[in-house]
């Protein structure tokens, strides 16, 4: 195993082809390690991080995205997946994407639940109480997982792409690849997964900005069952960077949401996701082209 082997692998994925296409469906270290191994490259998750960092050092900075399509007060857009043209194949794959890998230890996840972390999502990121909590939380040393990598406290959920050692992974990966193909047809440009997340009951993603990955993001959201009471649902919450108004979006199954991640310190898009219900929630994130709305031929 070596960083050199990993660097060689990563460079080979820069050429258009099957490897590059498969990589668009992958966000987890472990599945990229597995993809490398299946193609004759041997490296660990730690070596993958080291190789990615060294390649990024020498690479030109990614182009900053252009301005939003219009100076609009809309910071998010939501649709029912059934209403989006060309999304039929994506909707059809949802049952194969919404997996619960048997390698996930839900009891261990539940033991990591922290009430004060969940509470932090009820505050505005502009609230001094949030700032104080955030400073304290980020100063605490991170716990290490079984691979010796730091556990990000901001995620109380399951990253499906970090679970490759279960019998269903092959079918799940094949479904992700088909979704990339379907979405590239819809958007007429490159689409890649940005995260495949399972939020079991009481799952959450704490306030964050994703400022290191600017651009438009699309999330396909679904649950195991409809919410009994629409007022008791999972939700997406964000802060309007201009007005500092906190907006909470109650969720329904089979929804597609778009929002834009900014890097400008004045425009950071603080957001969090909480599933305070007994339902299971999944969200599949994608980096989509800036002109996605035009591509979908939707009215702005
Ligand atoms: Fe995010």
TrEMBL record:
InterPro entries (UniProt xref): Nif11
Pfam families associated with the record: Nif11
Domain spans labelled Nif11: 1-48
Name under which the protein is recorded: Nif11 domain-containing protein
